[in-house]
C-alpha cells in the first residue's frame, strides 16, 4: 500500500494550482490595469498582484509560527507590478521560494500551529498545513476565480481551469 505524506500531498496540490494560476496570470491585459467591474472591486492589476503576493504569505505559514498584522517591521510585498513580465517574474520567484520552503519542511513541522493576529486579537490559529490549504490555496483559488471573471468581462480568452474553457477548441 502506497501512502504519501502531508507534505507530498500539499506539494502536489500546490504544483497543480500554480500551473493553472500562471496560465491565468499570463492573460492579464496590463493595458486595462485600472479596470474594475464594480467600485468595490479591486483594480485588475491590484487583484493580479494580490494573487502573486499571497504566495509569500503561504511561505510565511511554512517558515514562521505567527504573523501580527500590526507589526510594522514585517515584510511587505513590493509595489504592484506594472507589466505582465514583472508580474510573471514575481510569480515565478515567489512560487520557487514557496516550493523550496515546503520541500525543506516535513509532516511534523506542518502540524505545528500558525497564528495570525492583529495585536492581541487572534484572527486564526491552525496547524500550518491547514493554514496553507485554507488561507493559502483556497484564498488564492477564490481570487483566481475573480480574475477569470475580469478576463471574461474584458473579452480576454479564459484558459481552462479544471477542464476545458468555452474559449478553447472543444470547450463547453
TrEMBL record:
InterPro entries: DinB, DinB/YfiT-like. Keywords: Metal-binding. SUPFAM superfamilies: DinB/YfiT-like putative metalloenzymes. Belongs to the DinB family. This is DinB family protein.
Amino acid at each position: 500500500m502506497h501512502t504519501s505524506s502531508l507534505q507530498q500531498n500539499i506539494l502536489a496540490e500546490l504544483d497543480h494550482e500554480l500551473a493553472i494560476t500562471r496560465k491565468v496570470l499570463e492573460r492579464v491585459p496590463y493595458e486595462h490595469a485600472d479596470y474594475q467591474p464594480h467600485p468595490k472591486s479591486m483594480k485588475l492589476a491590484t487583484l493580479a498582484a494580490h494573487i502573486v503576493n499571497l504566495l509569500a504569505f503561504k511561505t510565511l505559514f511554512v517558515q514562521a509560527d505567527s504573523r501580527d498584522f500590526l507589526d510594522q517591521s514585517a515584510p511587505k510585498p513590493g509595489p504592484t507590478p506594472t507589466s505582465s513580465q514583472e508580474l510573471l517574474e514575481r510569480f515565478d520567484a515567489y512560487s520557487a521560494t514557496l516550493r523550496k520552503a515546503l520541500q525543506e519542511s516535513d509532516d511534523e513541522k506542518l502540524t505545528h500551529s500558525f497564528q495570525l493576529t492583529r495585536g492581541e486579537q487572534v484572527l486564526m490559529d491552525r496547524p500550518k498545513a491547514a493554514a496553507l490549504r485554507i488561507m493559502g490555496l483556497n484564498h488564492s483559488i477564490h481570487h483566481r476565480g475573480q480574475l477569470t471573471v475580469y478576463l471574461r468581462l474584458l473579452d480576454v480568452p479564459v484558459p481552462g481551469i479544471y477542464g476545458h474553457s468555452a474559449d478553447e477548441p472543444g470547450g463547453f
